[in-house]
Amino acid sequence: MKLYMHPVSMTSRPVRLFIAENGIKVDEQVVDLMTGEHMQPAFTAINPSQLVPVLEDGDLRLTESSAILKYLAEKSGSPAYPKDLKKRAKVNEVMDWLNTQFYRDWAYNLCYPQVFPNHKRRSDEAHAGAIEWGKQNSQKWLKILNDHWIGPNNQYLLGNEITIADYFGSGLVTLGEVIHVDFNKYPNVARWLGNMKELRTWNQVNEVFQGLVGSTKGKQFETV
Hints:
- By secondary structure, the protein is α+β, with helices and mostly antiparallel strands.
- The longest helix is centred in the middle third of the chain and has 31 residues, at about 85-115.
- Helix 1 packs across helix 6 (about 165-175) and helix 4 runs parallel beside helix 6.
- The N and C termini lie far apart (about 40 Å).
- The protein has helices at about 10-20, 40-45, 65-75, 85-115, 125-150, 165-175, 185-195, 200-205, 205-215, and strands at about 1-5, 25-30, 55, 60.
- The protein has two domains: about 1-75, Glutaredoxin (3-Layer(aba) Sandwich), CATH 3.40.30; about 85-200, Up-down Bundle (Glutathione S-transferase Yfyf (Class Pi), Chain A, domain 2), CATH 1.20.1050.
- A four-stranded mixed sheet has the order 2-1-3-4.
- The radius of gyration is 17 Å and the shape is globular.
- Helix content is about 55%, strand content about 5%.
């Protein structure tokens, strides 16, 4: 198997973490997002959406982080993607919620416009409006994540057993560290992220991402 990825990518990191934790043999190829390699014809032929990650396994090519995690968990027989129909449905549900409701505002309206120049809106007024919209909605989604999905008793998103939803969600939620979100305002989220960061390979997989976080130290952001 081969994984096209970038070590900072919020959607590559969950896949890389699952691979590392489960000792799955995968060849990695870095696609340099910072130089625009993903926009070039060679990679566009692999993924017309011009996004990472992409997994190749023989004649199969998968282009979405959520789908890749499900495939790898199924292929490896991991209990992180339960066989029980109802339990699996709940994993699918929270992954869909993270990928749509949560990440749409969290990433594309709050975090990315403040970090990456190519996400800046066409005017200062539009830019400020997008960030304010993202801030308001992200507060709502974080409260739901804190109170509903995790709650005061769960160690993970769906109870006390880790699932692929935790791998996926932790990669998306930690984007907030780049704009210095204080997750202690959401204590259940903070506890959950702490549990994920205790995984054996977390630091190894997230080393380059932590460099990005460090590069924004001292900068001022709109946060939640």
